[in-house]
Structure formats: structure tokens, C-alpha cells
Specification:
about 40% strand, about 10% helix, Immunoglobulin-like, five-stranded mixed sheet, mainly beta, single chain, 9 strands
Length: about 150
């Protein structure tokens, strides 16, 4: 059985990540031809999140990304999916007429709508789609605290 690397973290840097993403979006060239694109191009995979009473299901479209170039980090509030899609070799003696497929590194941080149990996570990567299933943490738990006398 193959496994997808999942790293559990205590916190992500949401402000730093958002600022970095905003700056990248402002200064990222929008090339007409891939010959003019920067080598360190960053793209954003499309995602869906499904919310059921017991779990959250996250699906990411990662066509062409090798499982070994994919990394997932999870904490109780967020998921960070990042990796690299390698460029396919160009066809010899050809010139681009249309170039829409994005290559290079990618990162996506998703803040979850409810806390999840990081101990109960499953993943599947089939046909270019990554699916994560995360068990929700019960929110209505109350605990009784004993009061002692000194």
C-alpha cells in the first residue's frame, strides 16, 4: 500500500502566507507564452470541501502531480497542501499556439469550517484527485470540573 506524506502541525502562519500570496499575485507575470514565464511560477489547485455531520471531505485537483512531489500538513483548524508539478517535455520542432497548463510549485492553505481530529485522517490520490477525509471533533462536549477546598 502506498502512503501519502501527511505532517501534523500545531499552527500555520496565516498572515505570512496571505501576504506572500498577495505579493506573488501582484508581481506574477501573466505571460502570453511560457517562454516569458518565470522559472519559479506558483499556481493554485482547485478544491472542493464537503461538510457532513461526522466529517469534512476535501478534494484537490492535482492532475500531473506525482505523489512523491506532494505534501500535506494538517492541524485542527487548517490544511496546507503544497508540492510541485513537473513540466512535460516540449514536442520537438513545435511552437506554442495555446499554453494554459501551469507548472511549478503550488501551495494551498484551507481554513476549516469546524475543528477536526488530526488522529482520524485518511487520504486517497487517484486519477489526479487528492481526497482527504477528516473526522470532526465534537463541539458540544462539556466537562465537569471538581472544586476542592484549601
Amino acid at each position: 500500500m502506498d502512503y501519502i506524506k501527511i505532517r501534523f502541525g500545531s499552527d500555520f502562519d496565516p498572515i505570512g502566507s496571505r501576504i506572500e500570496k498577495t505579493i506573488e499575485d501582484i508581481f506574477r507575470p501573466r505571460p502570453i507564452s511560457p517562454m516569458f514565464s518565470s522559472r519559479e511560477h506558483c499556481w493554485t489547485p482547485q478544491m472542493d470541501i464537503y461538510d457532513t455531520p461526522q466529517q469534512l471531505i476535501v478534494r484537490a485537483e492535482l492532475a500531473g502531480v506525482d505523489k512523491d512531489d506532494l505534501e500535506i500538513e494538517i492541524n485542527s483548524k487548517a490544511i496546507r497542501i503544497h508540492g510541485h508539478r513537473r513540466e512535460l517535455p516540449r514536442v520537438p520542432d513545435s511552437s506554442y499556439r495555446l499554453a494554459e497548463i501551469q507548472y511549478g510549485r503550488f501551495e494551498r492553505i484551507i481554513y476549516l469550517p469546524s475543528p477536526v481530529d488530526t488522529e482520524v485522517v485518511s487520504s486517497n490520490y487517484t486519477d489526479g484527485f487528492l481526497e482527504l477525509r477528516l473526522a470532526k471533533r465534537p463541539q458540544d462536549l462539556t466537562f465537569s470540573v471538581p472544586i476542592t477546598e484549601e
